[in-house]
Amino acid sequence: MSSSDVQLTAGMRNNLLLLQKTNKGVQEIQTRLSTGNKINSALDGPTNFFAAKSLSTRAGDLTKLKESMGQSISTIQAGDKGITAIEKLVEQAKGLTTSAYNSLGTDPQSIATRKSLATQFNTIKDQIDKIARDSGYAGKNLLVGNGRTLDSTAESRQQVNTISGLASSRVTNVVSADTYSVRVSGTGNISADLADISTAEDKRGISSLKVSGKLSATAGNFADVSIEMRGKAGRERTVVVTEGSESRTIRFFDNSQSAAASTVTAGAEGTGQVSKIKIDGAIEEGDTFTAAVNGQTFTYKATAADVVDSSTGLDYSPDQRREFVADKLATAVQAGLDSARFSVDSSATDGTFTITGLVTTGTAVSFQVGASTTNAADKAISVSFTSGTVVSFNVNRADLDKLETAANGTSVVQKNVDIEVSATNLNGVTVSRSGSNSRGNAKLSEGENALSFSSGTVRFNVDPSTLMQAASAQNSANITTVQRTDANTENDLNVQLNESNTNNISVQSVNVQTDGQGLRLDYAQNNFLDRSDIDKAVESLTYATATLRSASQGLSTNLNIIQNRENFTSEFSNVLTEGGNKLVQADQNEEGANLLLLQTRQQLGTISLSLANQSQQAILRLF
Is this model's pTM higher than 0.90 or not? Predict the structure, then answer.
């Protein structure tokens, strides 16, 4: 039986409809209380529903942007930390240049100190680059710039390296593209610093000191010459002349040479006298030997030919020197004596010669013979080295004796060489280093040399052993710098500030590396040999400091903008969320009161329906 077959009275049907409507209202209120929203779907209120959804969606987009902004802030903070660390290293480098200024001097200790400081300076420079490269965050590095690099071409470096005496050529701190013509020139003539010569003469008791020669094309060097004096008055003197790894030792004024006369056969009736003169001891140039026969004296002074082999430059042995002097003194005696009365024989090789009397009768069968020697009062010394350097000077016994032991010690004489390496750029600017310059004034040296231009620094290693070959041929070659990589924006940071991307900010990556496109902080030039090399380092540090400050200020400005925008986005997102909630959220108090009212109506409806049904039940009682 269907429900349509049941006939309800009008009162019962009205009460039933009211009860059903009340139950539906209770269910709706219970739904709003459980969700907290008075509008849970478009059917509940399309206008408010879609308006609230729009506000909620926008708030969600802004929340996501806030997260992105937070990562951008971390990226900028990473760059700022890197700049702070680099600034500390730059300050350390400034301290090294101050120490280098305090150690200016041409003495070996000062030069070694500055070289050590230059090495430390280079280490700091390398660390700056490493910190800059390590300051990236989430794939972005705001300290490496736009990636544009310039460098010399491999082909041009190779061309310069083909020049004899030059190697490891390159260009550092490249600011702009350029071409440099590198040339070697000069005669190779060797000389010495006049002030050093004067000082050495005064302190070592020598005179006419001269450093000369021509740089060898196969064994040249730029080493200074040192002269060391040893000994004391009345004793043997020794002088040691050193250049680089080579030394020459000369001994003089030893008083060990001697000349002695003796009788081999006494003169008698029928027999002529035979006497012998013996030359002994260590013979040096300038030693004087005297023979006397019957009051007639004959003298010979040893020369350089008696002590040194001119063809080889090597010293003769002591035996050879004695033999040469004996032969030459014998020649002088033979030339001065009456050949009718005397004969001289110098055929012996033991440093002796004999005088034989030819008169065998009368008193003339005997004669008087004597011999003596005196040490050289002056000594002319000349030594040569494989580098082509010749060092010569004179020593005077009286002058040395006056100085006693004060003459002992070592004097260093700066060697000058007429040879130059220069570079000329496209603007016609020429920078050079010359071996003839005084130390501290762009003097060419062994090892790395640097020539500084506004567009970059040309560097090469100098080998003086073969550099003269290039100077003789006047060799030259070009080294060229070009752009190696193009600029890009891959490290720039783009920050979206609103949900529609109509407001954004771009934080450009700044190059704080030490190359020519960044801080322009070059390696120490020429090991801080010259004051000008230290000056260039100070200039580059000043530029680096200014660049770092500008980069730090730029990052700080962008950081403040993004942080301010992040705070705004957070607060504005809350406003949007709150506004959306106002459109759809239910009033819990109001809904609770409505629920109580409907529940009361529900109870009343049930009672009313029960009363309406009682009239039907009364009819049943009649049966």
Answer: no
